[in-house]
Amino acid sequence: MSAFHEVLFPLKLAFGASGGPERRTEIVTLGSGREERNTPWAHARRRYDVGGAISALDELHELIAFFEARRGRLHGFRFRDFADCRSGLPSAAPGALDQPIGTGNGVQTAFQLIKTYGEGAEAYARPIRKPVEDSVLIAVNGAALSESAFAVNYATGMVTLLAAPVSGQAVTAGFAFDTPVRFDSDRLEASLDAFGAGRLIQIQLIELVL
Length: 210
Known about the structure:
Blueprint: E1 4-8, H1 11-14, E2 18-22, E3 26-29, E4 35-38, E5 45-49, H2 57-69, E6 76-79, E7 99-103, E8 110-112, E9 114-117, E10 124-127, E11 137-140, E12 143-144, E13 150-153, E14 158-161, E15 170-174, E16 179-183, E17 190-194, E18 197-200, E19 204-207
Parallel strand pairs: 1-6
Antiparallel strand pairs: 2-5, 3-4, 5-19, 6-16, 7-15, 8-14, 9-10, 11-12, 11-15, 13-14, 16-19, 17-18
């Protein structure tokens, strides 16, 4: 049975990865030449290729061990996308005011971590399911909360406040996060270029929708 393993893909093997978000758009061209465009996906799915990060046999051995422990495509795991792994800019430390995650109503105490891309009506809100442990900061009405004032489920990205924010108060958050992924193939194919060095042709990871 498939499961999600709360383990992180080796960081040194993630540095050389390529990839990013993928959308699915269905396009119908009408007789007039105009197009109708629609999407069945509410959220993007990210794809990564980590084959280019492998340059030594020891790294290849580490990847094979990780692949075998996940049973190929069977089990998911965490992946650190260094281009998009923080609530703000990749070069900035997370701050408690980075991302709006809800508005108080005097009753609600649980809020899902969210990262918003863009502004206004066209903005896209991405649920963050895999925050990095001990990285989450929370503020209510602009005032940062102490760590004892909230709890974080690091497997789901749900934040629970001890006290419900007053109606109309903004709840914001800062955090680092990982992307939940799995291997996109049940096969690893390696090319040994020379003694002491190895190269993987292609190793694809695909984001999981949780």
